[in-house]
Amino acid sequence: xxxxxxxxxxxxxxxxxxxxxxxxxxxxxxxxxxxxxxxxxxxxxxxxxxxxxxxxxxxxxxxxxxxxxxxxxxxxxxxxxxxxxxxxxxxxxxxxxxxxxxxxxxxxxxxxxxxxxxxxxxxxxxxxxxxxxxxxxxxxxxxxxxxxxxxxxxxxxxxxxxxxxxxxxxxxxxxxxxxxxxxxxxxxxxxxxxxxxxxxxxxxxxxxxxxxxxxxxxxxxxxxxxxxxxxxxxxxxxxxxxxxxxxxxxxxxxxxxxxxxxxxx
Length: 265
Description:
The protein is α/β, with parallel strands linked by helices.
């Protein structure tokens, strides 16, 4: 049997152009979205963009950032987003891969970075995107530090990025991690059972997913971090992770101080 092509080979720049040209303006208008300091991105070469994740199941993070990225750099420079294997099930998987979403693994990330592409990763994953509304402006990767090793091994800078507003698209009450453990869901790699309230279904325990409210979303790209230049040839992973999260938290705090009202921004 022929060998399955690499995940990165499935990216279709023409299809991506169509998607961003259609969805981008809708997302920007609905969320009054802003992406600030896109010029902070390295002008060429591989880079690992590390961001907080927000908005629950219908997170708009990628749909806010990707159109601005391609508007700035063009479609000759791919942006790959690491995604949980579960989202690739069914026919949607092929469409996601054509748009540059690849299954999250160290191997896929390394291949993309070494090709000179930009890779977007949300280390906190669902755990972060379902953080309670009361802790909406906290960077929480759930102790995951694999992104640091990925950047070091690929020899690329880490580009921190923060976003605010999507955690106001509904009321997130609890992650439900203890409930998931009690029900034995962790055996199926389901670590949380989040509870939220929104429109039009009201109370939701993962399903049914409520529609996001039109909260104003602001995303900010921060200065790249050259890990080995800043932390030495054999950097301490935990120290780098703490620094990245600290830089991100300070920037998120700045964005939070600008907001006057929930949803309205």
